[in-house]
Amino acid sequence: MRTLFVGDLHLSADRPDITQAFLTFLETQLADAEALYILGDLFEVWVGDDIAEPFANQLADAIKLATQKLPVYFIHGNRDFLIGSTFAKRSGMTLLPEVVVLNLYGINSVILHGDSLCTLDKPYQRFRK
Fold first, then answer.
1. What DSSP string describes 28-81?
2. What is the predicted pLDDT for the residue at 50?
3. Domain 2-128 classified CATH 3.60.21.10?
4. Is the Cβ–Cβ distance between 38 and 4 less than 8 Å?
5. Which residues are paired to 94 by β-bridges?
6. Residue 22, class by beta-carbon neighbours within 10 Å (0-12 exposed, 13-18 middle, 19+ buried)?
7. What is the DSSP letter of 123?
8. What is the pTM of this model?
9. Domain extent listing, the chain
10. According to the model, what pLDDT value does residue 65 have?
11. 83 contacts 47 by C-beta, under 8 angstroms
């Protein structure tokens, strides 16, 4: 068994090649995996769960299919921090806090999106607060 991690995909309707690569990944790489962690910035921009668009619905449906095979976990990134319980429920993902410590195969591991570590970017860090 293996644990899968993806992050910073920045999916958008403007980049169908990247979206198709992610959809192909979901269709072909989950068979022997025990979990999938999406570490933020799944979308290039996410303005909120109340905006339903075909592109977001397509991805929610694909992730929902994946959750029939394994649990899918999500940590917010700086581009999709407004993903909330509505999209999580629709897609079947479990929302996680900003920093998570996992025991992966006997090794404690920290997982996060990483934008909180950009400490030299003072304007961005002020915005995050």
1. HS-TTEEEEEE-S--BS----TT---HHHHHHHHHHHHHTTTS-EEE---SSST
2. 75
3. yes
4. no
5. 73
6. middle
7. H
8. 0.88
9. 2-128
10. 98
11. no
